[in-house]
Write a structure and sequence with these properties.
The chain has 716 residues and is of the alpha/beta class. Helices cover 42% and strands 15% of the residues. The protein is globular, with a radius of gyration of 29 Å.
Length: 716
């Protein structure tokens, strides 16, 4: 694999030590830990001091450059400079931080398809989000390649605003430098007598610095040896609080026992933490709705210094509800600090919890998670030849082909879509234009699209058809001119045998390429209570056997009210081809009536409707069901397994071949018993590992690239 060429630009001044500057430095250091990366950092402003950039100067495969400007770059100037740099370096990925910057960047076609945008400075309260901001965020999500989200909560917020974000959001959590965990390793884990308080950061209204100093002054009257050490030199001067700056400067310079260290490097902050006992990261309650985590809070934890912080869901998820240093407001500072000073055992407990939490945010851990996303941008399979191969994808529903088409583009192909209005409905004039353009035609579904293109194929063109289980119930496959089809793709060997037996197609033209699962996208933390939630994703038509799922939940929820069943997917009347069939309508109506009449089912079953964001929906699902009579692969269990849910599968024809026998259940009673008795936490890890090893996206898209872009053996 060749190098992954990355440009990084944050709309932040690296001469000023604040959270955004530290973020940029941390990101570059994380990227540098991923094998094969080359990183170009564009500075916003001419370098006046190197407190931040000095960390980057010695890194291999990293260059820090500045534009020929005496003033800080505007967003427009920065994008111009990035495009000039792109002429020389041909970036695979351009990482940007800043809402205003991102809004301009996505409007530039030159950078399209390569923008990885980190958004934090956006409205984070959905109740006050303006329609203009909603439209801007949606535009960014639709046009960028990836959205980098600092927390799972922020990712959910963005995906709720912009549905396009559902397949593009990547978690990029706060990044904690190794120097902090080294400090934590070095300091003794015994003792616990609190002698020194510590704060590092900016001085702004809402950040609680004045309240902290006041609380400290009162505490010192009772604890005369107590010290407060403060690092940082960014003092805000807000127009609506004209006295704020002078009050902060006075507090920092005239408070007895307070040592102000000014602006210092991260290494120096870590050194100061080596002598600190409790850190301060409390904020005004007006900031409690933030969906971001403070990196400093995690740095304190890694260094073995428990931190005072607000009791908000983000912090409760991290440290547990019983963290002894939670405050409900800045007025609680004195009381909480006084308690921890008097209770060494609670200090020790908070310290141990914090150190354990911080391990997930170290540079190596973040690099381990981010690396696979980066490597997808540089495929192993690259199209040979001087001209880009022209690949046309034709079909009525191509959502399962999006990742494959993206990969083909990265391999050097030009990809277009001929989107049909139905199984046999299309604009024939448009299809003929596309036919004239294409070198390779991929028919997604063996329906009318495959019939038409197989019969209109030109000399020298390649035709590939993907056959699903559903098409075998129609007449379309028998009308395909199979002699004009180079390859038919199916998802399993058993299904290939079935296609040969039913259609008489030559087996040498049928290749097995399994369905893929985006294991990176689906790997998200489960919501509380997921271990009691069953999910059936796609419960229509009759052969999906929703009645079996109802049998299972009725038994479980009848014994324990915590159990629930969630039905995800289109409703019966939203699928005309199902609803117009009398047998289907009678069956599905009977199941809905059963739910309505049963007190247990009314309470325990939720019909969630069609899911445009499957990854988010699966966060609440602990068990994913596959009670069908017949499937060729059934993607839903694999998606559930990738999310960390335990599969429960009835023995349809190819179930054992696709998923093994570990999770097969002979009937509803066996399924209910298995669900109630399994070690959920352990079993879901086994299921997740199974899917990661057998159905990851990368080898599947590589197989499609081989089929579409390279010479076929014994091609027609």
């Amino acid at each position: 694999m060749r190098s992954i060429r990355i440009a990084v630009y944050g709309d932040v001044n690296l001469n000023i030590i604040d959270g955004s500057a530290i973020w940029l430095s941390s990101l570059v250091q994380v990227l540098n830990r991923i094998e094969g990366t080359e990183v170009t950092v564009l500075r916003k402003a001419p370098e006046r001091r190197d407190l931040v950039t000095a960390e980057l100067a010695e890194l291999p495969r990293v260059r820090v450059v500045g534009a020929a400007s005496a003033a800080p770059l505007t967003p427009e100037q920065a994008l111009d400079e990035l495009e000039r740099l792109d002429d020389r370096h041909d970036f695979d990925i351009v990482v940007l931080r800043g809402y205003a910057l991102a809004r301009q960047a996505v409007a530039r076609p030159r950078l399209a398809g390569r923008l990885w945008i980190y958004l934090t400075d956006i409205p984070q309260d959905p109740l006050t989000l303006s329609e203009a901001d909603r439209a801007r965020i949606s535009d960014i999500a639709e046009r960028c390649d990836r959205l980098l989200c600092q927390t799972e909560q922020l990712r959910s917020h963005l995906e709720a605003i912009a549905p396009a974000a559902a397949t593009k959001s990547v978690l990029l959590p706060p990044m904690v430098a190794p120097v902090f965990s080294e400090v934590g390793d070095a300091r003794a884990a015994t003792g616990g007598r609190v002698r020194r308080l510590f704060y590092a950061g900016k001085f702004a209204p809402g950040w609680g610095v004045l309240e902290l100093v006041a609380a400290y002054a009162r505490l010192r009257a009772r604890h005369p040896t107590l010290e407060l050490h403060i690092a940082g030199d960014k003092v805000h001067d807000p127009p609506d609080e004209p006295a704020f700056k002078s009050e902060v400067e006075s507090a920092l310079t005239s408070t007895e026992g307070l040592v102000w260290h000014g602006g210092v490097t991260r290494a120096r902050v870590a050194g100061l933490l080596g002598d600190a006992d409790v850190a301060l990261s409390a904020r005004d309650q007006r900031l409690d709705n933030s969906l971001e985590l403070s990196t400093k809070l995690l740095e304190y934890a890694a260094a073995g210094v428990p931190a005072v912080c607000n009791r908000v869901p983000l912090h409760v998820d991290l440290f547990g509800d019983d963290h002894p240093l939670f405050v409900d407001g800045l007025d609680d500072l004195e009381i909480v600090l006084d308690k921890i000073i008097s209770d060494p055992q609670e200090w020790q407990r908070a310290r141990a919890t914090g150190r354990q939490v911080a391990t997930e945010f170290g540079y190596d851990r973040v690099a381990e998670r981010l690396g696979p996303h980066l490597r997808r941008r540089v495929p192993d399979v690259v199209s040979p030849g001087a001209r880009s191969p022209r690949v046309l994808v034709a079909g009525h529903d191509t959502k399962f082909f999006d990742a494959i088409s993206t990969h083909l583009t990265l391999c050097g192909a030009a990809v277009r879509f001929d989107r049909w209005a139905g199984h046999a409905l299309h604009d024939e004039a448009r299809s003929r234009q596309q036919l004239d353009w294409a070198d390779v035609i991929i028919c997604e579904w063996a329906l009318g699209n495959a019939v038409w293109y197989s019969r209109h194929r030109r000399h020298g063109q390649r035709v590939i058809v993907r056959l699903h289980r559903m098409e075998l119930e129609t007449t379309f496959p028998r009308d395909i001119a199979i002699g004009s089809v180079d390859r038919v793709v199916v998802v399993s060997e058993l299904f290939r045998d079935k296609a040969v037996a039913q259609l008489g197609w030559p087996s040498e033209r049928i290749v097995v390429v399994p369905n893929w699962v985006d294991t990176l996208l689906l790997d998200r933390p489960k919501l509380p209570g997921a271990e009691f939630n069953l999910g059936l994703l796609g419960w229509i038509p009759h052969r999906k056997r929703v009645d079996r799922a109802l049998d299972v939940i009725e038994r479980l929820a009848g014994a324990d009210r915590r159990w629930r069943l969630y039905l995800g997917g289109k409703l019966p009347w939203e699928l005309p081809w199902v609803w117009k069939r009398l047998d289907e309508r009678e069956y599905l109506t009977a199941q809905l009536d059963r739910i309505r009449r049963s007190p247990v089912l009314r309470r325990a079953v939720s019909i969630d409707g069609n899911q445009t964001n499957v990854a988010s929906w699966l966060r609440k699902i602990g068990f994913v069901l596959s009670p069908s009579d017949d499937e060729s692969f059934h993607l839903a269990p694999a998606e559930g397994m990738a999310s960390g849910a335990v599969p429960v599968i009835w023995p349809w024809d190819t179930a054992a071949q696709v998923y093994g026998r570990r999770w097969l259940c002979s009937d509803g009673d066996a399924a209910a018993e298995a669900i109630a008795s399994v070690d959920w936490e352990s079993e879901r890890r086994v299921a997740q590992r199974y899917v990661r090893e057998r159905y990851p996206l990368e080898p599947v898209v590589a197989s499609w690239a081989e089929l579409a872009l390279h010479p076929l053996r014994a091609a027609a």
